[in-house]
Amino acid sequence: MAIYGNGNGNGTNAKQKDPVLVVIQLSGGNDFMNTVIPYTEGIYYDVRPLVGMPEDKVIPITEQLAFHPNAGALKDLWDEGKVAIVQGIGYENSSRSHFRAMDIWHTCEPETIATEGWLAKVIREMDPNGENPVTAVNFGRGLPRALAAPNVTATSIGDLDNYGLMSGIEVAEERDENLEIFKRMYTPAVGSGLVMDYLGQTGRDVLKGADMLSVAPQMYKSNVEYADNPIAQALRDVVRVHTANLGTRIFYTNHLGYDHHAQEVPAHNKLIGELSEAIRDFMQDLRDHDAAEEVTILVFTEFGRRIKDNGSGTDHGSGGGAFLIGEHVKGGLYSEYPPLDRPSWLNDEDLRHTYDFRGMYGTILEQWFGLDPVPIVGGSFEQLQPYEKTLV
Predict the structure, then answer these.
(1) pLDDT exceeds 50 at position 2
(2) Position 118 pLDDT exceeds 50
């Protein structure tokens, strides 16, 4: 494994914890303009008469930008200096197809159909002999393409509480259901041969993680009361597995529902509130367990939304935004907010991207994990400097 130190780790503490990444995927295309809002720009209100957030309701973070009114919990972490906002993230010739756009984010291949997920390559670096089937754990059904590659195992579970209570037959049935979901999703893109090769390996290896994960709920105690919604419960599961010390280095979660072509205001309001509060509770739970120092959270989505609303919501767009959150994150604004003057609009309707997402991946890989990013993201891209300290 190639290790690239950045000089920020102390390198002398034998008990130093391994860095961990928690990915939160906002599926459907989160509306960045309504998450980090240019609330002093008149054009924002001109082009969004329906979905624009009222200026007196937003939560200012600078003289130009504000959080969504329901992101108060995220604002608290921002005030602590633990939230880095990556503005204008995307790539050239952005795809407006959910499937293709997410595939590009999962594989770092905008031009061709790739056979390996970017995090699957990381798993291979961390566990080259495939000795730990829970090096990466996804909470949800199916398996994200980011974690999938031939001869790489990532464990995916739908319900951690019931997982340890299932019989071997039931675990096998859930595994088969997950693999069938994966097969349906990815055969059209990468072909049946690769998918079957992958499923053959995963079918053998993923059962090894069942007994390992079953111990996590029994070992966990917490005073944090998570909300009863999928993203909050998924992040609670992350803490339960992380604090069980099973060697998991990558956690993956999915927050569904961000494709707001209609009825955006009530739907997006609800999701942003759920997300912000879940992340706040997650961070508090990690801190209570002395398990926050080694965690970086990445929040991303496949694309932003159109600049103008459509009378009820917003349609698929291009430039968007992402977040890095953690104890060692140097909070603030990174890259540039896409220009809002009309001559700068992409295709006369989209936010332009101002920063390539592969640079953010490269930042995490090199600065947080100590890995060479070039073979994983497919080249050298401008990195951010979002860490006050890292563990490598």
Answers:
(1) no
(2) yes
The candidate with the shortest Cα–Cα distance to 130, out of 149, 107, 111, is 149
Rounded to whole angstroms, how far apart are CA atoms 355 and 90? 6
Which residue has 């056979």 as its token pair? Answer: 115
Query: What HEC string does 254-278 produce?
Result: EECCCCCCCCHHHHHHHHHHHHHHH
Give the separation between CA 353 and CA 378, rounded to whole angstroms. 19
Tokens 């801190």 — which residue? 287
3-state SS assignment for residue 160: helix
Distant-in-sequence, close-in-space partners of 221: CB < 8 Å, separation ≥ 6: none
3-state DSSP: the chain helix, strand, coil percent, rounded to 5?
Answer: 40, 15, 45
Let me know: does 138 contact 144? Beta carbons within 8 Å: yes
Tokens matching residue 20: 């961990």
CATH 3.40.720 is the classification of domain 20-377: yes
Alpha-carbon distance of 360 to 177, in angstroms, equals 33
Question: Is the pLDDT reported for residue 170 higher than 80?
Answer: no
- List pLDDT tens digits, range 239-288: 999 999 999 999 999 999 999 999 999 999 999 999 999 999 999 999 99
pLDDT of residue 196: 63
Q: What pLDDT sits at residue 357?
A: 98
CA trace torsion 187, 188, 190, 194 (10° rounding)? 20
Helices (H), the chain: 42-47, 72-79, 98-107, 118-126, 160-163, 168-190, 192-205, 208-214, 216-219, 230-242, 264-288, 357-363, 374-377
Break the chain into its structural domains and give their ranges. Answer: 20-377
Between residues 174 and 269, the one the model is more confident about: 269
**Residue written as tokens 């197809």?**
97
CA atoms of 160 and 148, how far apart (whole Å): 21
Q: Which residues, in sequence order, are CB contacts of 39 under 8 Å at separation 6+?
A: 53, 55, 58, 60, 64, 65, 66
> What is the end-to-end Cα distance of the chain in Å, rounded?
13
